[in-house]
Amino acid sequence: MLGWVITCHDDTAQDMLHRLEKKFGSQAQCRAVGFWRGLSSNMLSRMMCDALHDTDSGEGVIFLTDIPGAAPYRAAALMSHKHSQCEVISGVTYPLLERMLLSRESMSSAAFRNQIVSLGGPDVTSLWHQQQKNPPFVLKHDLYEY
């Protein structure tokens, strides 16, 4: 099963997880991390790292964030580069999470990423999709073999 780390501003992440659990019961491998005004980037990263390790069973973890480019998204993006099968999604809403809930059990992280982005509409994207639009910078001397 894919782990979920829902990470949003203020109470939003905890509210989403609470609503899911109220309707569907306790959610294994699912954590909420709130980003509050005044919380340092370092503390946010530590909280998200704990959540990543708590939710990872080896099948992958999906970071579900509210605002593309905001602190939770950036912290998740940095962590995702160090862990295989880790995806970062932005623009998530409660109805979208509810719709994708059962897919946690049957999809790979890459398939999940593609599915949630296609279902989410224009406001939902992923780190992977953004990287396809803007490939990483490569120095010219790295292109040549010596």
From TrEMBL:
Xref: InterPro entries: Bacterial_PTS_sugar_comp, PTS_EIIA_man-typ, PTS_EIIA_man-typ_sf, PTS_IIA_man
GO annotations of cellular component type: cytoplasm
GO molecular function: kinase activity
Keyword Chaperone: no
PROSITE patterns cross-referenced by the UniProt entry: PTS_EIIA_TYPE_4 (PS51096)
Name of the protein described by the UniProt record: PTS sugar transporter subunit IIA
Pfam families: EIIA-man
Gene Ontology biological process terms in this record: phosphoenolpyruvate-dependent sugar phosphotransferase system
Source species taxonomy: Bacteria, Pseudomonadati, Pseudomonadota, Gammaproteobacteria, Enterobacterales
Predominant cellular place of this UniProt entry's protein: cytoplasm
Keywords: Cytoplasm, Kinase, Phosphotransferase system, Sugar transport, Transferase, Transport
Domain PTS EIIA type-4: 1-124
Tagged with keyword Ligase: no
Gene3D superfamilies noted in UniProt: Phosphotransferase system, mannose-type IIA component
Source organism, top-level taxon: Bacteria
Subcellular location: Cytoplasm
